[in-house]
Every structure is written in C-alpha cells, then in structure tokens.
Amino acid sequence: MKSLCINAMKSGMSDVFNFYLKGRRNLKRFLSCKPGRIALYQAIFSRGGGSTLLAGSLICAVILTTVWHFTYVRITDERTQAIENSITESNDISMVLASYLDEALETALAYSEIGSEFMKGDHRAVANLDSIFIGESVYMRAAIFDESNQLLYSSSRDDREVLFHDLIGKQKLKFKGLVSGYAVDDKEESLGMPLVISLFDKKNQLVGYFCVFFDLDYFLRPYIGISKNAGLNINILHKDGSILAMLNAGNIFSIDKMSSQKDFLDTENSNIVQVHDSAENSGVVRKSGKYPFFISVSRPKNSITKNMEKYQSRYILQALQASGSILLVALMMYIFLLKKKFLNAKLEYSEREKNTLIEQLREEKVLAYKMASHDYLTGVPNRMLFYEISEAQLLHAKRSRNHYAILFMDLNKFKLVNDTLGHLIGDELLKSVAARLRAALREYDLIARFGGDEFVILLTEMQSENDVARVAAAIIKAINMPFPDIGGQEIMISTSIGIALYPRDGQNVDALLSNADAAMYSAKRAGGGIFHFYDASLNRTTARGLELLTRFRRAIKDDEFCFHYQPKFDTKDLKITGVEALIRWQHPEHGLIFPDEFIPILEESDLIVALGYWTFEAACRQLMAWKKAGVAVVPISVNVSTKQLCDELFIEKIFSEMQKHDVIPELIELEVTESCFISDFPQAVEVLNELGRRGIAISLDDYGTGYAGLSHVKKLPISSLKIDRSFIRDIAIDNDDMMIVSSTIALARDLGLRVVAEGVESEDQLKRLRDLGCGQVQGYYLMRPVPPDKIQAVLMQGVLSA
Q: Does domain 90-304 have CATH number 3.30.450.20?
C-alpha cells in the first residue's frame, strides 16, 4: 500500500506541476501588455487588494483541508465498516457452532445413562453402546470404569484406555457433571477430546465413570470451506483459555494444552458473547450454554482490509488531483479577479440597471411561457409543451433499456355531457378528470390536454409492456368511478385509451401520437371503456386476461378448478409429514392453466376471496374422501391471500366447512406470505391469533423474500417457516446462502418453530439441508405435484420409495 500511495502522490504532483506551468504562461501573456500591468498594480496596492488575496488564500486552504479530511474519514469509515461486518459474521458462525456443541454434549450425557444401567448389573446395556458408536460420527468410542478407576468396558476393545484412565486419575475422588481433558491426536489419527461423566447410585454414592471420546476433527470439518475462503480462525477453547482445537485456513490443528488465548478470552467477563478487536485480529468469543467451553471465531485484520488497499490508493490519488485542480483554479481565479477589478468599477452601475431590466423581462417571459405552454382550463401542459418535453424524453429513451409509451385518451360520450348539462359542467368534469389522472400516475409522468376531451400521457422508464397495461387499466378504473359533485350533478363517464410503444410503434412523437390515436379508435370500436395497443399481438394477452376474468364465476360453478398435491418429507427417514395443495385451472378450451397466470388477475379484481373459500372447501372434501378410503391422512397446507385475512367472515366460514366435512383443526395448515403484513399488520395478527387459539397451524411461506422480520414472527402464532427456494438453489456451492439457511434454522429452533425447505432439486441440496438440521423438505427431486389419484398411493405407502 505504501508503494501505491507513493506512486499516487507522484502522479498527483506531476499534474499540479503541469497546471502551474500552464498558469504561469497565461500570467506572463496577461502582464506583457501595459493595461494588464496597470490593473495588477492597482489591484495589489489598492486598499482591497491585500484583503482579497488573504481571503482567497484562506478559502483555498479550507477547501484543501476539507478534501483531505473527507479522504481520511472515508478511508477510516470503510475500514471500520469492514471490521464490524467481519465481527458480525464471526458472531453468527460462533452462535451456530455453540448450539451444535451444546447438542453434542447433551448427547454424551444421554449416553451416560447406558453406563449407569451397566453399573447396576445390566451388562447387556453395552450392546446399545456398540450399535450407537457404529452410527454416531461425533463420538468415536466409549469406556466404563468403576469407582477405583478399573476398566470394565471399552467399545474399541482396548484393554487399558490409558487416555481415559489418566484423566480420571487427575480429578478429585468425586465430581459431578461432565469433565473434559485436553485435545489429543487419537491413535486413529483424529483430533479429539476425552470426556468423563461420574456415575452415582440412588444414594448419591460414586459407582463409576462413563467416558467418551469427542471427535473435534469431525465437529470442525463442515467449516473447512468457510475458514479457507473467508480467512477465518475457528478455535474451541477450554474455560481456562487453553486452545483445544484450531481451524485455520482450512486446516485443523492439534494444539498443545499449554497454548492458550487468554489475551483473547476475558475469563472474568460473564457475558455470553465477548467482542475482541485488537491491532492484529478481530472476532468474538461465545460461551457454551452449559459447559466449560468457548467458541472463538476471529479473522486477521490484514485479511479484512487487504482488498481495500487499491481503493484507498485511488482515494489518495483523487485527493491529489483535486488538490492540484483547486490550486490551479485558485491561481487562475486570482489572475481573473485582478483583471476584472480594473473593469468592475466602471461597469457596476450599468450592471445594476441591466439586472433590474433583465429581472422584469424574465418574470414577464415566465408568465408568457406558462400561459402559452399550459392548458388554461386544467392546468396541465398543452400540445406545444408536450411536444417539447416528449422529444427530449425520446432522446433519452434511445440510451435506455426500459420502455416508453404514449397513451392517447378520449372520454366516451363527453359531447352528450356538454349538450345536456352545459359547457360549464363539461369544463368542471375536465378539471376533475385531470386531477384523477395526476393522482393515478407517477409524479414524473407527463399529462397533456390536446383539446376538447382528448388527453395524452407519456410514460417513461417502464419495465415491461405489462406495466404499461397495468397503468392503462388503473386509469380506466379511476375514470370509471362516479364523479359525485360536478355542479351538483353525479356524472358517470368512461374512457378509451390507445397505446403506442417506443421505438416499435414509432421513432418520433408524431408517429407515436398517430399510432396511439389509431389504437384508441380501435378501442372505441370494440365498445369503449378499454385500452388497445397499436400492436395487435399485445392485445391478445390483454384479451386472455379479460376472458379468464369473465369466465371465473362460471369456472367456480362448473368445478373447473382442481388441486395438485406436493408432499413434504422428513429429512431423516423421508417419511411424509404433510402435503401442500397447489391450485390449477382445467380450462375447457386452453387446457391446464397454472396459478401464475390467473392469480394476479383475481387479486386485482377481489375475486381471490371467492377462490380462497373454494380451495378451503375442496381441501376439506379431499380429507373426508381420504378418510373414507382408509388412507393415512396427513395435514393439508392451503395458501391464504391477504384479502382473505381482511374478510370479516373468514374465520366463521372456514370452521363451518371443517364442521360440515368432519375435519379436525390439526389436519389443516394455512400458509401465509410476508405480503400479509404490509397493508394491515394488526388485522393479520388478530385473525391469525384467533386461528391459532382454535388449533389451526400457521406456516410462513417464502420466508426471507419480503418484509417480515423476527419481530413479526414473534408476534404471530407461527408454527413453521418455509425457506424460499432462492436460498436453497445454490446452497451446495454458495457459502453465503449456506450461512443464511444455517442461521435461519438455528434461530427457528430457538423459537420452537419447524423449518421446511422449498425447491429441493438435487441430492447435494438434500444432504446439505440434512447436515444443517433442517427438519422437512419438499421439491422436484423428491416428488413433483401430482393429481389426487396419484398422491393417494404415496400416502398409503407413508414414505418415499427408493
């Protein structure tokens, strides 16, 4: 970094020197003429010349100081932020490791019960130990000693077990709980730690010792990739500060028991988490929940700030260049001021007079331009200003990847309003229409009135044609609403809109207006009250949506909707724990339609509530049919929309359906998305709490993609979290996704929630989720959504077949 800074300073000083030579040549040229020399002498030796020079120097010094101050602050802040981010990451990793360590040690205590049974005389109990340590990877072997330190049993068939024998001999005669030794390299070339648990009889008399060998190498192995890629040092410490095991740069080291991190660990500090930030390292130390161990996660500061050096050098170079520019500007400004001082005295009076006249002319010009460019009645721009702004916007559109569109709008039967109610009423109606247009559009969208009842709108920076269509639909909806008080009259009116897209439908404003006008007349011929694109292919998409919307009530009546079911599996034995009901539309003409096409249309038209009640009733019917067929029934998950939660009859209707079909609450799970908490969070809390009190499970779907934080989760009767498929897709190759999923699983476990991972599409993803402790999964790798007749056979089997 030092060499980079030196090169940057050399480059900056070279620029300053070149600026100085250029300024010197300009000064010589100025002073070569007699008027220039006279102006210089007058400016310097006049009463104000010295003060001007002093003021300029002070200003230059202040600017230079500010530039270098902000450069220093910027470098310092970025370094501090990088260190804080590293400490936060270390804290998350230490929390997961401490949780897993506690679980492993609790398992050792559970195994000690087998040792107690053995000491009571049940010698067959050790058979359980043999089977356990065949499949338990974190514990390599076990042994049992009597109270006189005599070996009674060894799972490894070692007749001495010196490691455990020596550890017991170093302890007092009687001790309770779990005692650990220092980490050693086992004979099987694995780094491990011996643990001893005292065994007592019912009279609290010491009867023996149960010993296990905890495999630290296996415990740390899943974090080798994180340590190597992120440069993390992960240590397991004894309560006295000695290092039991170290994971450094992707390698696991055996540490001599005399090594310690007492400078990193404050043994007198009772806090669960200790933050350490020294000159060399930064990280955290986290206490184990119940046992005398600490998890230390740290990173060398030089690895944190290594990638920042090139940016810091660039900041210094920019500061040097800015300093050179400031000095040059100061020099040139000083020469300029010397020259202007000679002329300003004669021009001052005439300048004031001229400015007064210019200000009067400017005010008159602004007033005249506004009168010429805006519609006198509605206050929106007129045709002239629309052309002026639109041409400038289309120049920008050539460099933009987004869509630009012109909407030509005409009020249907406006002439009838003028003829029957009078032109004054018509004028008031036009003002109200303009106000509604301003409310329905974005602040930077352009609205203009071309005359009569014709309005033109320019939409800029739209993401897609669908976005343009949604805006047009919103305008039609706004104009179709009754105008309640127009001169004491309530007026109903509609509009037709034609849409032309740039550059496909025209390369300039005239072409776009002409094509939008043609599309508007096409909409009028189709009956009015709708919008048409100039490109007929886009109208087919709009017509498809209108067709589906029109047929919806008949589709409900004719039972055209159906469910496809996708099961959820337990990660341990792939046992089916439930099914999710996914709705489909079996259209008589278009075939099977997926929800992505019709759900957004129903959401906008409020018909989603009716569909929601159909889905719940259909789920209850399916459960009743399965019970009659003798199928082992599992809970069905049904999706619930935001608008359903706002329906006052929601709770009453769903429990009425459950009672009608003899369905108990434990067989129903409602899935809500995070969007339910955006519009009316108190209403959602009230409804979901009531459902929870009545025994219905609530699942939070697509967790992590919206706005629900842990504060929302804690306030709701959520029983499970469904991690969105976007975090699962790259979990086997992306450490960031793995850490997010791992942290979510750990936090959900602490809150007592189940975790379901969506979108499992490979064996690697399933294995990684199983290793992270995820309870349930669903996805195409296990089983795709299938009709009821096919899922019934799977439910009869109960588990996923090979």
A: yes
